[in-house]
Design goal:
Blueprint lengths: L1 H10 L6 H24 L9 H15 L3 E2 L3 H6 L1 H9 L3 E3 L11 E3 L2 H11 L2 H13 L5 E3 H8 L3 H13 L3 E3 L7 E4 L2
Antiparallel strand pairs: 1-3, 2-3, 4-6, 5-6
Helix pairs in contact: 1-2, 3-6, 6-9
Length: about 190
Amino acid sequence: MKWLMSIARIVGSSLPFVPTLIQIQTEIDSAAIQKRLRSLEDPISSLHPQIREVSENIYRALVNSDTSRVVFDEEFYSKYGKPLAILESQGYIVGSHAIGAKYVNGISVQDPKYVVYLCALYEDQAKMDALLQMLEDCKQGQWLRGETICAELQLARPVVKAIFLLYEARGLGFCSREVGAVAYVGNA
């Protein structure tokens, strides 16, 4: 087909079917470019066609449970086995596995970048803007209490903790390592 398109471009519109072929090729090229752009803009969703659907379920469970460990029913794990396996292979989630059973004790959302991805898709952007502004305004030595922020902005603790961890990774502060606590102190 590639050779035919090359000849069609050379010969031009002197053959009656050439404009139709060129139009078809242009649309195919456009669709391919759009797909490539989407995978660059949203690399996680491009991993599997069901990633967005399973991610929305994971995010809703994170918000409802207010913890990074979420448990679904067996039907969920069966229906979304492949996208869950892909997310786990990429390090976005960690499953609790046992011999003969997957996700025995649910899944844990470990990667803060994945939580940010979930927030970009499913969280109120005004709340996220307010959270980021709090971190940007945080002075050296100032403590931000996650529980206070969660109550004020109506955000789940895993969301606030993920943002704290990303700021810590950039060297801008430190997250508390106290079990169950979500706190951050500014460093810069």
